[in-house]
DNA sequence: TTGTAAGCGTTATCAG
DNA sequence: CTGATAACGCTTACAA
C-alpha cells in the first residue's frame, strides 16, 4: 500500500520521529536530511493528511457558502479567494445554498461535521443563529457581501449606500426626477443599504420621495418581473429605473426587451454589477461595479489570519468602494453637458 | 473538547464498539440504541471524519478540476453535480486550473495529496500523463467535456461533431456558402470534433472547403480577436461565421460591436453555448446549446459508482446530444421560407 | 539532535 | 449482539 513515514524511517535508517520532524521543518542533521529525502523520493512517499489532521485537529480545508454557483458575483468572489487559499494549501469546499436559508443552515452543519478549519459565508438572509453556532464552536467565520445585524462577525462588504447613491446621483444629474427603484428584500442588509443610498441621493437633491416608485423584489434569478410591470403601469411612471442587484438587472433587460421598450430611449435604466455582456447591449448598460475579486481576496486573507489564531480587530467590518460605469442607457434630459 | 464516541459509550453505558456499530447502521439492541441516541443528543456528539478516514482510507471528498471558475460552462456543470454529491455526502473541492496544463498537473498532485476519493477533470489539453498517474494510484477519474486520446478513461462529452454539423447545416440552409469558422486549438479534442462537424456539413452539401475560412484561436477568455480580424480582412470574406465555444463567441460579439458591424445584417453569426444574455442581444444570437447540467450530473453519478468499486463498462464514453437555437443572427439569403 | 512511546477518534477482529 | 483491543499514520512530550 501507500508508504508511511514508518517506511521512510526504516529505509533512511532513522527514527520515525526524525522523519516527522524533517517533514515539519524542524532541525535535522544534514546527513539524515539527505537520507530522508532520498527515501521519500525512492518510495514516492506522500503523507497522510488525515493522520495529521487527527493529531492536530486541522483539516486544511475551508468551506465557502454561496447562494448560487452560477451567479457571476459569487464566482468572481471565489476567483478572488483562490490565490490566497492556494498559497496556504487550503482546499476550498464549495456549497451552494440555492438562496434558501434552510439549505444554508444544513450546509453549515455539513461543513462543521467535516471539521473544516474556517467558513466564508455569503448569507441569504439576515438570520444569523446558525452562524453563532459556528462561532461558539470556535471555528472562524467571515461573512461576505452581506452584513448580518446583531451578530458580531468579521465581514467584508461593499459600500452599498454610496454605490447606490452615486448611481442615483448620476441619474439625477442627467435631468431625471422620477426615478424608480427595484429594491431587494429588506431583510438583506445589502438591499437595505442600497435603498438607503437611493433615499439619501433624492433627499440631498431635494427631490421628494414617491413611495410608489419603490418596489420590492427577491434577489433571485428570474425575480423582479412583476416589479418592473408595477412601475411601468403607474399612471405617472418613472423616467428612469435603478435595479439594485445583478439578477434584477438581468430581469429588467429581459422585461424591456419583451415589452419592446428601448432602454436609453423609452426608459432610462441603471443596473448593478458588471459583466462583459452588459456592455454589448444596445446601448451598453450603466451599472454600479463592485470589486468582487477583492472581496474574495480580503475575505480569504482575513479568514487565514483568524485560522492562525490572530483575532486582532475582531469583529472587523471592511467596506470596499464601488465605482460606476456611465453610458447612454440613461437618457440625458438636459441641454447642458454633464461631466 | 469535542465529545468522542468514547464519551458517548461511557454515558450510554455500552462499549465503544457498540456505539460505532450503531453509528454505522449495524444491528444494536433496541434498548442500547435508545441509550446511545440519548447520549449523542446530550453531548451533541459529532463524529470525527478524520479518525474515520484514517481507518477506512476514505475522505468523502472529490476534487473537481476546471479551467476557470468564472466560466459559465464550468459553473453549470458543477451545478449539475451538486445534487448527486450532496446525496452521498461528498464534499466538492474545486480547483481552477486557469487554463494552464502546468496548473492542472499541480492541482492533480494537490488533490492526490489530499487523498480525495475521486476526481472529475475538464482537461485543458490533450495531455493525459498526469491522469494516468491518478489512475495508477487506484483513484477513479472521470473526464468531462473533453476526451483525451490514447487514454483509457471514463468520459462524459457532448456530441461535438453533430453540434457543429447542425449549426453549419442551418447556416447553409439559409443560403450561405461562404462560412468562416473560429476553430479551437487542435490539441483539444472538443475543438477538433467541432471543426470536423463543420467540414462534414460543408462536404455533405457539396460546398468546397476554403481553408482560409478556417482560423484558429485559443479557447480562452478574450481570445480570438485577431481570428475575426483575419476573416473579415479576406478579399473574399465569409458571409457567416461560426464560433465554436463560449469565449470566442463572446469575443465575436465584442469584436463586431467595436467594428460597428451589425450581426444578422452585415455578418451572420452563430455561437456556441447558451447564456440568457445572448438572447437579449439585438438580434438574439443563434447558438449550439449543450446540456451542461446533465454533463455534471452524469459525471458525478459515474464517479460515485467508480468510487464504490463498480467498474462496469470501463472506460465508459458517454456522448450527450446538443441542440441549436436559431435566430435572426443568421441572415436568410434565400426567398423560400425555411422550416 | 535523536529515539521511544503515548495518544488522536475511529473501525474491525475476535472471542464470548 | 457485545466488549476488549489492536490497528490506521502521524505528532509531540520526554528522556537520552
UniProtKB/TrEMBL annotation, chains A, B:
Do you know which PROSITE patterns this protein is assigned to? HTH_LACI_1, HTH_LACI_2
Q: What keywords were assigned to this record?
A: DNA-binding, Repressor, Transcription, Transcription regulation
SUPFAM superfamilies with a match to the protein in the record:
lambda repressor-like DNA-binding domains, Periplasmic binding protein-like I
Identify the Pfam families for this entry.
Answer: LacI, Peripla_BP_1
CDD domains, sorted: HTH_LacI, PBP1_LacI_sugar_binding-like
Highest taxon of the lineage: Bacteria
SMART domains per UniProt = HTH_LACI
State one molecular function term (GO): transcription cis-regulatory region binding
HTH lacI-type domain segment(s)? 3-56
Keyword rRNA processing assigned:
no
Q: Which PANTHER family match?
A: HTH-TYPE TRANSCRIPTIONAL REPRESSOR PURR-RELATED, LACI-RELATED TRANSCRIPTIONAL REPRESSOR
What's the protein name?
A: Transcriptional regulator, LacI family
